[in-house]
Amino acid sequence: MGKVMLEVKELTTKYITRFKEDVYAVDHVSLKVEEGKSLGIAGESGCGKSTLALSLMGYYFPPLYYTSGDIIIDGRNISGMEPDDIRKTILGREIAYIPQAAMNALNPTGKVINFIEDVVRAHDSKITKAEVYEMASERFNLLGLPPSTLERYPVELSGGMKQRTVIAISVILGPKVLIADEPSSALDVTSQKMVIRMLMDLMEKQVIKSMIFITHELPLLYNVTDDIMVMYAGQMVERGTAQQTVFDPLHPYSKGLMGSIIVPESGSRGVRLTAIPGTPPNLKKPPFGCRFAERCRYVTPECIVRQVEPVETSNNRMYRCIFSEEYLRKAYANE
Amino acid sequence: MNDANKSCLKGVGLTKIFGLGKQRCLAVDHVDFDFKEGEIISIVGESGSGKTTLAKMLLGLISITEGDIYFEGVKRDISSQRKKKEYWKNIQAIFQDPYSSYNIFRKIDTVLLDCLVMRGQKDLPAEEKNRLITEACSFVNLKYEELTNKYPFELSGGQMQRLMIARVFLLKPRVLLADEPTSMIDACSRATILDMLMDLRRETGMTIVFITHDIGLAYYVSDSVYIMEHGKLIESGSADEVILNPKQAYTQRLINDVPKIHEEWDLSTVDAR
User: Fold this and answer.
1) How far is B159 from chain A (nearest CA, A)?
2) pTM (2 decimals)?
């Protein structure tokens, strides 16, 4: 077992709406990412994937608030720290975050290098321009981006190029954990592949130590990550290796998700997709029992009245359902 | 299904040039195709390949520089507004962004009633209109009672996209152009929308043309696939032929670049520079 880079224990965060209602978008989520490993997070829109990504940084701003739980990065607990300390010492150095529309983050009126200077100066005010330039061009070279990009304005770059530039900037201080939230969903397939290739390079060349990758594109997740965690209504419902979760899902929700995969491979035509009916529950008033009960085809009265705790299985997997592994497998086989 | 070999929508030498003089941009370059009745067709290409421009020409939303459109064997002139209105009885569209597909000042009731007016059923008794609309809504798993007196923006993106399908269900056109209908929604709702469109084809026998960049989706839904690059149709044929046995390098690259789950996804084929 490798060194644990990121450990999250029972993290709960909430949004407070303008009507003072609490929305628990991340509810007692625990996870662990080891050195050199990547964790994928899957789920529908509105399941709390992106909120989890934001919460993991430990830097909260309204309407997102911290409730309870611990975030431990490489042995250091950051959950109780002051927001200003987190911004100065943790973000960028220990943990970095790439949001979905990252490419729009570049300042249109400045060159890429000016942006990098700002980023580096925020953490180290003594560094000189020449040093920043050297550091940046070295890093860009390593990642296969032409160093001439540094002298360009964002409008001169294509979408895929901008995205890769932003990724290169976000890891310039060599963070231990990189959180990538749908980094390639706005790009066409070729640019997407370049972005993924770059993320893989970052891991291989040990610029970053571990990665959390969020997307709803399951084939992509399967190819990029070692482990996959499925989220539903703010909770983790299943966790296992990518192979296990995609080809042998246990939780009925994961099963439904995997049934919606479309790939251009022989044999995938004419197979009816298993769309899950309905929508995720309103998290202002989450259901008391299993949160998926309303949409589950194997639902029993017990599911609605009993709170379901995660079950750990023999081969280090986890799922949150009242049924046993054998029961679920048998049910899926009879479909 | 209707007679499989009857031509439904046919384009001969369709060309669109934007701009004038030296600034000319050839967006669609002498495209020929023949969509058969009851077929599901996909036009696949990357951003900038001209697929949306082609769709807009077929809908009469932009003028055609050169070439003709034949609908059910008859050449169609869609230059005037009156002729377009007539043409739109046969051809309808669903767009990528459901949020901008509605008139925000009109309530959902009006949107759906307008469909009946367009079909020439303005004088039906109120109960009959209500029944037709309720039927259309239940086809897409929406409850009409819950939609009355609401505006489109009160619905979620997935619901709005389903309401678009309900409109198509009411209008019953012969051809439906679906321009990236699922690219803004997640994989799970995508399955729902695709299933509904397939059911729609089964019930009405309409021809559906998908415009998409997602080659996996194209393979899953369509009978025939057309590949577009730089405004030209470079490859066409049945879905199995084109996707499993691509002849053009461009098609091969498109397929290679999509992550798969049974075959290995080769990252080394892309040049990071």
Assistant:
1) 10
2) 0.85
